[in-house]
Each structure stands twice: as structure tokens, then as C-alpha cells.
Amino acid sequence: MYTLLKQDGHARRGTFETVHGAVQTPAFMNVGTSAAIKGGISSTDLVELKCQVELCNTYHLHVRPGDDVIRAMGGLHKFMNWHRPILTDSGGFQVFSLAKLRKIKEEGVTFACHLDGKRIFMGPEESMRIQSNFGSTIAMAFDECIENPAPYDYTERSIARTTRWLVRCKEEMARLNAQPDTLNPRQMLFGINQGSTYADLRVRHMQEIAALGLDGYAIGGLAVGETAQEMYDTIEAVEPHMPADRPRYLMGVGTPVNIIEGVYRGIDLFDCVMPSRNARHGTLFTWDGIRILHNEKYKTDESPLDEHCGCPTCRNFSRGYLRHLFRVNEMLGMRLGVQHNLYFYNTLMEKIREAIEQGTYDAFRRHWVPILGRRI
To answer: Transmembrane stretches, by residue range (predicted)?
Structure first.
């Protein structure tokens, strides 16, 4: 259940109640693709890094170790020792981004596994069954991820199929949640809005899926090559048609600036691999801007990575030491960098929530967007 606590313009401060605890929104969901954050971060680390929700990848976990294995181990929460909410994606994005050979039919999609070429079939029912075996808090509906740009007529046919698939997802989840041996009988379902960058198709699709009364709604198919302004325009077109009493999720986004702008336009939830991926390559987000640790100027710099940050990395290690770790490809450098970036993102969300509560979000946005988007 979503409760709106305060609104400042379109920015929303809320609480999202789940069977695995409450999520304070707006929130960033930390991406643990294969039931772990890349860079050597454990579930117990995530508590100290102020993570509220972890996101896991249905496709990758279905391939390895297998959803049957995870179910036999008691579900994802027990498997990875994480007892706060988990969102699992549907596998749709990976089917359409990783599979070089695929065939889309009304039933679902047949494609070649990216690891061994083995043929796999996935459709709405299969995705729901896999996610039910995980016992995740939130399951994402199976949708077609449309390329950007895509022809208008193809996009129109695609969103119609995605809506039909969503109805099947809802029916299958209701069936699975009613089973006596289901791991999480209160598993939630989020629908996904698609439509490329065509505002009329986006709005039509949002109106159709909003009528299904789901637990939450996502905007998908963005941050895949379109300009930032096209993404913001799409959010502005869709947002008025998203149910106000449900959480709103912008999938795969993004930079700190993207998040600030997304909240400004009414978004509650975000996820992105960027903070962990960038950190593993020595690019760190700080309250002074983006810091590239490979730069020569940090060679003998004794300052903490970010003098305004209280994360374990900034409390204990210098820029010079961190640069050394990255230069010699030491795994510890990746771990310390990922720790910092995730802490930074989760702290950013705290500051966003505080600004909305105080009614100062527009001033917050105008102050931080130029700072957080610049390279030091």
C-alpha cells in the first residue's frame, strides 16, 4: 500500500508498505543482478549503506543457479540473507537486449541463452512462475522492450501485445499467490508502460494498464539512447495518467541528475547499475561532482574521497590510496568504490525526501543539478 505523505509540486514523499517492510519514497533500488551487488558488496553491507530495496534479475537467476534451486533454498530473501524488500524484473529486458536470435509470438518469446545458446521460452506465465519461486516482494510484468527509436505502427502493435501479456501476468500471479505452498502469497505485481517516445501511445498504454488496478506502475523503455529531454518529456506526458495512490517506478535510471529530475516530475522509485558499474572503473559520485580517481592529481592526495560523506570508504581511506588500488587492479578498490557510490545514492534519496518534506524541492533541484552533473 502506498501512502502519500507530502507533495511539493509534482515531487512526492511517501511510504510504500510491503510484506518485507516499509519503503520510504522516493527511493533508489540497489541492483544485485545475480543476487549480489557487483564489486564484493554483501547483503549485510547494504544495511550499513542505507539500502532499502534490492533488485535482482529474473533472467540471470533463472539461467544460474535456476529458480528451482532458489526455491529449494527457501527463496531469494533467505538465499542471499536480505530481509528487506526485493524487486525482481520480469526478464523481458534481457530477452530483448541479450538474445541475438529471438522469435516473438503471442504466447511469448523463444530465444537463445547468451551463455550456451540453449533455446529458452519465456512468456507471461513463465515469468510469473519464476518470480513466484523467488518469493520476491515485487514482481515485474513480462513486457516487450521496444527499441528506441521504433516505427510508430510496430510500437502500437507491441504495446497492445504487452497489455494482453499484462492481463495474463495478473491472472497467473493471482493463481500462484493462492497456492498453499507459495513462498510469498502477498507478492505484488507492477505493470510496465511502453510506447517508445510517442507521447500519444505512452498515454494510451498508461490509461489501459492503470485500469487493471495493479500494485504499482513503471515507465520502461527509457534511458536506452534517447536524449535526457526526450526522457523527461515522456515522463511528463505519462505521469498525469499514473494512479496517484500507487508507487511510480522509472526503470533503469540513472545518474544523480536524472533522479533529481525524475522526482521533480513525480517518480517514486529508481534503479540503475550506474553507481556500481562506474565505481568499479574508478568514477565516483561526490557532493562536489564526479571524481575520476585515475587522474594523476590524486596520486599523493591524502584527503578522503568526499569530505562531505560519512560512508565507510570516506571515513577510512584517502584518494591517493584508492587511486593506487585502481591502478594495480586490486579488487579492494572496486569494493571501496562501490560502497561509496551506493551510500552516496541512498544519502541523495534521504536529502530528496527531506527537501520535499520541507517544501523546498525546487530550490534543492536548482542547487544540486549543476553540481552533481559536473566532472571535477
So the answer is: none
